[in-house]
Structures are given as C-alpha cells and as structure tokens.
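tool_call: predict_structure(chain=1)
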Amino acid sequence: MQARINNPAALLPEAVKAVNILYKESHSAGVPASTLELVHLRASQINGCSACVDGGARSAKKNGETDERLFAVAVWRETPYFTDAERAALALAEAATRLADRPDPVPDEIWADAARHFNEKELAALVLWIATTNLFNRINATTRQLAPQNWG
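tool_result:
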C-alpha cells in the first residue's frame, strides 16, 4: 500500500497551527499524559490507523509506558494493568470513537464513570483529545498514511 498524498497537514500549513493548539490545550488540563497516550492508542486501534498506532505506541513507550500495558490496550477490560481512571477514559474513548454503534453513542454510565475520575476541565480535555485523535485517524486512513518502514 502506498500513501495517496503526502501528509495533508504539511500541504496546508495553517492546519498545523490549529492541530498544535488542540494538542496543547488537550495536554494542559491536568489529565495524566499516560492516560492521554492510552486513549490515543485505543481510538487509533479502533480506527485502524497504522501511523497513529505505531506513533502512539512509540511515544507512550518513550514516555515511560510499559510493554505489558501497551500490549494490553486493545483488551483493557480483561487485564489488571489499568487504573479505574484509565479504564473510564478508555471507555469514553471507545464510545466517542464508535458513535454509530449504538443509539446513545456515549451512554450516561460511561460519562458518569469518567466524571467520577476527572473534573470538568479534564473531561473537556479528554473529549477534545479523543476528537483530535479521531481527526488524525480519519486523515491518515483516508490518505493511507503508513507507519514508518524504517524504525532505526
């Protein structure tokens, strides 16, 4: 498989500014960076975005995440490796990524669980980060941006 076009953000430089603002705001509200990394990885797995799965796992690992937890993100419900707050964030990420899968895309119980672990500003950051991840995933999947072939 080959990319259809180069990275669209590189072709439209003003878009990079907007993405950088979304990234900065999402990461400045107090949600642990490790939680944001896990959320990014899970949404990217669901969406089949090879570039984001690869980049997200590498970024998480570089920032101290363990292989054990990274390998288990896709099955987070069936493993003991995640905190209750991380589980709530992962459930929110899955629901917000799979909007068309149920009549109530983000059920009250998923939102309430997230709200037990995160304050309003942190919830806003999580929602914004999930949406930004889905933006990355959709751009990359549509244009067939691939995970790097030379890992060096």
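agent: The chain has a mean pLDDT of 92. Proceeding to next step.
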